[in-house]
Amino acid sequence: MKKSSIFSVAAGLPQLWQSRILGQIGDASIKVIRMGGEGIPPEVHDAFDEWLLVLDGELPLVVDNQLFTLSAGEYVVVPRGKTHHVPPGSVGTLLLVDINAPTA
């Protein structure tokens, strides 16, 4: 076990919107992302929900055509199957948790 800095890991990512897995807890993957640039195109995750927490900066997020603007300390859960995208204008560090669907 060792301690680490989320901000150091994010700063070391070579590309915007590239994620790094920080760890796994049960069926959840905990990731850090350095946000910015042109955003990301629409996507849908059928196998998992996503929990997004803005650690610093700002994240505009469109989920099923509804715009949310998240600031540092704010979070949202994007349920599986929901179309979502990030328009241009984001900046900062994002903590993301993919919550995998239970298997039968």
Attribute tags:
mainly beta, 56% strand, globular
Q: Give the biggest beta sheet.
A: 8 strands, antiparallel
Global shape: globular
What ranges have pLDDT less than 50 throughout 5 or more consecutive residues?
none
- How would you classify the helix and strand content by structural class? mainly beta
Q: Please bin the fraction of helical residues.
A: under 10%
What's the pLDDT, averaged over the residues? Answer: 91
Terminal Cα span: 32 Å
Structure, described:
The protein is mostly beta strands. The protein is built from one helix and eight strands; from the N terminus they run αββββββββ. Strands 1, 2, 3, 4, 5, 6, 7 and 8 form an eight-stranded antiparallel β-sheet that branches. The longest helix is centred in the first third of the chain and has 6 residues. The chain is globular.
Brief synopsis:
It is built from one helix and eight strands; from the N terminus they run αββββββββ. The termini are far apart.
Fold topology:
Blueprint: H1 6-11, E1 19-25, E2 28-35, E3 40-43, E4 48-63, E5 66-71, E6 75-78, E7 84-86, E8 91-100
Antiparallel strand pairs: 1-2, 2-8, 3-7, 4-5, 4-6, 4-7, 4-8
